[in-house]
Amino acid sequence: MGTPAAQHYDRRATSRILARLAEPELFAATEPPTPVRILFRTKELQREPETGLTQSQRMYLERFMRPCRPDQVTSATHRLTWTDSAGIPNTGYVHTGGAGPTLAIVAREAVLALWDSLARSGLGGRAAALSGHDHEVLAATTTDHDPHEIFRVGVEAAGRALVQHGLIAADTPYRGIAAFARGMHDSGIFTAVATRWFWELQASTFRRGMIPVRFATQPDSTVRYTAESVAVLRAMKEATIADARAVMARATTEEGLEVEAAVARYHDDLDLISRQYALLPADTRPACLAASPHEGGSVLAMVAERFVDTVVALVDSVAVVEDTTDEQPGSASGDDGIFYVPDMSCRHCVRTITALLESMEIPVVEIDLESKRVIARIRSLRNRFRVFEALRDGGYNPVDEVPAPVPGASVG
């Protein structure tokens, strides 16, 4: 038998493996964009007058974002829903003073284009050639153990970061989607997210349509986080690390659990407890695996640059039109047990959603991460309503299947 994967938890080694897999070129050439017309809907968020946040946002802030205050957070004004060119339902958030719905929709199309490019890049062959030890390191250190999935999630995270900062686009001198995307890249915002934020904060606040930072414009027209934003991000990160270490110390001493058993027990029960912090040595600070510098740069820089280039290339080929009809989309399948969770982005999300449904005594039949589809034995419309409400409380936005867009339409 091989050595247990727990003995191979190694963030530095994982970073080197990912950098090696990204050589000589992570992405194949993207196909020329096909014009597409995409309909979207918006719904105004009900924000509490005293905080300016929705109830879900406020509850998440109070539980997981200490010492961040409500006034340090910008909330979206509207929730956005649409179906992308691959026929997959999506949700997002926009601010009336921000970048608008086009940014979220074009960013999703860029994700799809780069996923296709990634599949054609030869990454699969390089991953298959990894040693057994390298595979064990990836399995022990990352949430998505398969290299292809790791890079797919990285592409989606780039889109998330760009769209989330669109909520505060009014803080910047950039006007238009292309200029905003270029400005975020040139200002180093993708790196700032990777190094100053922690993963769960970025993913969970994105799903809830909130962002706990503001921008300050520099003399060279780039933007940086304000000093207050940097301070609150640092404080939240330090509190999260302290929480993770306290839980692990209690689990391995008072409860007598082995490390792997402790991680398995608390990974799903507490949103912020994961390998990223729970297994770090006491004197070690967390660092983004993709942001670590290697010869020729970093994986993060490679992904961010290609993502922004793809967004810019797609701007003129995606026609975004608001659907103002009174009809609301319903389930095309007619099956109460099939629905979609558009903001499900990684295996951690799959585990979280599975655990939630099973806690409600609803068996999960299948969760397909690529299509965002969930099949569960819900059995009744009443239970379906309960499931949707529970998922929304967890920061997810389940939807019924909606009509596909019309590919190839004139973009006018």
TrEMBL record:
Q: Where is the signal peptide?
A: none
Q: Which UniProt key words apply to this protein?
A: Metal-binding
| Designated name of the protein | Heavy-metal-associated domain-containing protein
Q: Which organism is it from?
A: Nocardia lasii
